[in-house]
Write a structure and sequence with these properties.
heterodimer, A: mainly alpha, 12 helices, B: Rossmann fold, Alpha-Beta Plaits, 6-stranded mixed β-sheet, 11 helices, 14 strands, elongated
């Protein structure tokens, strides 16, 4: 019960502080820009008779759509870190948490409530952004991404992982330190992921190991690569090296690890907040 | 389980590394009492309140609230708390804020709605119930915070500096609310710097210094109790002075001015009669009650415990 009250409060805060409105307007602007771009590229293809065969047309649309989703993925990660960084740290430093924590409420309900509130927020965001991109390409060209739902679910998982680790940091560190740490971790995973890609193409097992270790520290980028792999057209998969093709595909084990990582981060958040003097 | 004490602490300590925030708080507050918690800045008053509310974990020691150990959720549903600085979610309206906290107390809608109306009227914020807390003045925030602390008809209310931001009208309101709470038998734990307020509202006070109770006093006995008397008269002989000591203590003579501490005011006529009988001309005899502020300085010292 307490969890749900706090979740509603968290969501309402995002609405009141215009986070939802800003996110929505920027999201719509992004989708419009993407749609206009897609329109002209598509016109160009039709007039030049390029990529005419169904397989190449498929790969063509697939790459453009993945580009859009790649940006959506990045925006979601940033959004997840931004909204969650201040949530516990900020309330502890201003003291607003005191009147909440003195109520007949478990501390864990405060943490889980905030997590749930942000999880709902991110779900709406992924539906708006990724849904907008997929709808736009589908309406303009009739193209349907393969494994669309699996891809979206994985992108959502990546955002949840980032949001959860942010809350865990926020239960102990200040807002700024939390933001810095999470963005740092994400940067590490991002670079590590490319080292792994290049290493895989160049047949360097050591470089691949570096990438895997960085993914263990922050699995969000690995989850995205798996999502991209799932949604990549068969022809593009054969090219094996490009911005969205994945030379080294994160395994199911990595996905399971990500789920465990998320639960562990949530557990750490609850535990640290339980012990924290407010 | 019922207990005669609303608050009972035993050697409650809080250490931050080597720094002692609260050095062993032992006190008992009876049910229905309005209890003032006094001490200089940094004496550990707020830390003590936070320990009692389970916002801060004590390093050692134990305490019971309403007969149950610290941290019990069922106790927290019977407690009200107005935090110091009263920082609340300022993107909520007054009504939304009270609704949220009522829900957190687990209050049903049917009970919560009339209660919110009642409290908004009580603290005079009914015209502002749909305004965001962000637009409230400091005094208004304190009032809405007070309403929040009373939502659940608590048995025990902690007020941390409830009048510090208020104008005289607001302070009067707080005083009246505390008066009503006392009538209802609610225990009030009041942490305040405004000693004149405490003097009017509290039954008993504890002075704390470096997180330890230095003294607890019944305010009634304080008011009725020891009085310093200043006497202006023609210069008395040493024999007369010796005779005066039967009435009180701390006798000091400085030319035609005598000061003396007596246990109660009732002995003033006897002193006058004695002096007149000894042939002394009495020009003035002035009782000076020890104010709470005097007592505070006496107990805590002017160094503020630093």
């Amino acid at each position: 019960m307490g969890t749900w009250i706090i979740a509603r409060l968290t969501f309402r805060e995002a609405v009141r502080r215009k986070i939802v409105l800003t996110g929505f307007l920027l999201g719509v602007a992004f989708i419009l820009l993407f749609s206009v771009g897609f329109y002209y590229i598509n016109q160009e293809r039709l007039t030049n008779n390029a990529f005419q065969s169904p397989i190449t047309a498929d790969a063509f649309y697939n790459t453009i759509t993945l580009t859009g989703l790649y940006v959506v993925n990045f925006l979601m990660v940033v959004m997840a870190a931004l909204v969650a960084a201040d949530t516990l740290a900020g309330e502890i430093s201003t003291g607003t948490i005191q009147s909440l924590a003195a109520k007949p409420l478990r501390r864990s309900e405060i943490v889980l409530g905030k997590w749930l509130g942000f999880a709902i927020l991110l779900a709406l965001y992924v539906l708006l952004m990724a849904g907008g991109i997929l709808l736009s390409t589908s309406l303009q060209s009739g193209y349907r991404m393969p494994n669309m739902l699996v891809g979206l679910a994985l992108m959502y998982l990546a955002a949840l992982v980032v949001m959860t680790i942010t809350i865990a940091c926020s239960s102990r560190l200040s807002t700024l330190a939390t933001g810095g740490l999470v963005i740092g971790l994400y940067g590490l995973a991002f670079v590590g992921s490319w080292v792994e890609q290049i290493g895989s193409v160049m047949n360097s097992p050591a470089a691949v190991q570096v990438g895997i270790v960085s993914s263990l520290l922050m699995p969000s980028e690995a989850i995205w690569r798996r999502a991209a792999h799932e949604m990549t057209a068969p022809l593009s998969r054969m090219i094996a090296f490009g911005p969205f093709s994945t030379a080294s595909v994160p395994s199911n084990a990595m996905l399971i690890y990500s789920g465990v990582y998320l639960l562990a981060a949530l557990w750490v958040a609850v535990r640290q907040f339980n012990r924290r003097d407010l | 389980m019922t207990s005669e004490f609303a608050i009972e602490t035993h050697e409650l300590r809080k250490l931050y590394g080597d720094i002692v925030a609260v050095g062993g708080l032992t006190l008992q507050v009876q049910q229905g009492e309005v209890f003032g918690f006094l001490g200089p800045n940094g004496a550990g008053k707020t830390t003590s309140i936070k320990m009692l509310l389970s916002l801060i974990a004590p390093s050692t020691g134990s305490a019971r609230l309403l007969g149950e150990p610290l941290g019990s959720r069922s106790v927290r549903s019977r407690i009200g708390f107005l935090p110091e600085h009263f920082r609340f979610h300022d993107w909520l309206t007054g009504r939304e804020f009270l609704t949220l906290h009522g829900e957190l107390y687990g209050m049903a809608k049917e009970r919560l709605r009339p209660r919110i109306k009642e409290l908004l009227d009580l603290v005079g914020l009914a015209p502002f119930e749909h305004k965001l807390l962000r637009t409230y003045s400091k005094g208004m925030l304190q009032r809405i915070g007070l309403a929040q602390a009373l939502l659940n008809d608590p048995l025990l209310v902690f007020l941390d500096e409830p009048t510090s931001g208020l104008d005289p009208i607001g302070r009067r309101l707080v005083r009246d609310i505390i008066h009503d709470l006392r009538q209802k038998g609610t225990t009030v734990f009041l942490n305040s710097h405004l000693l004149s307020e405490v003097e009017i509202t509290c039954d008993r006070v504890a002075f704390i210094k470096q997180g330890e109770v230095v003294q607890t006093s019944q305010l009634k006995s304080l008011v009725d109790g020891e009085t310093s008397v200043t006497i202006r008269c023609s210069e008395p002989t040493p024999d007369i002075l010796n005779g005066l000591e039967q009435f009180g203590k701390n006798l000091r003579a400085n030319g035609d001015t005598l000061t003396l501490t007596v246990s109660e005011e009732d002995c003033l006529p006897a002193i006058t009669r004695y002096l007149v009988a000894q042939g002394v001309d009495v020009y003035a005899i002035i009782p000076q009650r020890l104010s709470l502020e005097d007592l505070f300085i006496q107990v805590v010292g002017t160094d503020g415990g630093l």
